[in-house]
Amino acid sequence: MIPAELGEKEVQTAVQLVEALSMSWDPNEYHDTYQERVLELIEAKRTGATVEKGEPPPKATKVLDLMAALQASEPFPSSA
Fold first, then answer.
1. Alpha carbon separation from 43 to 32, 48, 69 (Å, rounded)
2. What is the chain's Cα-based Rg?
3. Residue 40, phi then psi, degrees to nearest 5
4. pLDDT tens-digit profile of 18-64?
5. Are 51 and 41 in contact (CB under 8 A)?
6. CA 44 to chain centre
7. Nearest one of 33, 55, 51, 32 to 42, comparing CA atoms
8. Residues 6+ positions from 47 with CB-CB distance below 8 Å
9. DSSP output for 5-66
10. Given pLDDT bands bounded at 50, 70 and 90, which one contains residue 76?
11. 29-50 core/surface letters (b: 16 or more CB in 10 A; e: else)
């Protein structure tokens, strides 16, 4: 990758974007549902309860190779 010099305008725009998308986050508002379910399954097996199978995972979809798509796209015009 070729290093590029950033102008003041680009840096200011990047800072504004990060500030606009930033938000306060309190990890106490969230809980780990996966860990809760695993602990429930462990407890059920420990006590001899019947454990039902979960749903099978969804079928895979066609994954786009982003790098190949970018390389195949037309190059940006030079700003010189």
1. 17, 9, 48
2. 24
3. -65, -40
4. 999 998 889 898 889 999 989 999 999 999 998 888 888 888 888 78
5. yes
6. 32
7. 51
8. none
9. ---HHHHHHHHHHHHHH-----GGG---HHHHHHHHHHHHHHHT------PPPPPP-PPP-H
10. low
11. eeeeeeeeeeeeeeeeeeeeee
Does the reported pTM lie above 0.85?
no
pLDDT over threshold 60, residue 73? yes
Residue for token pair 């809760």: 36
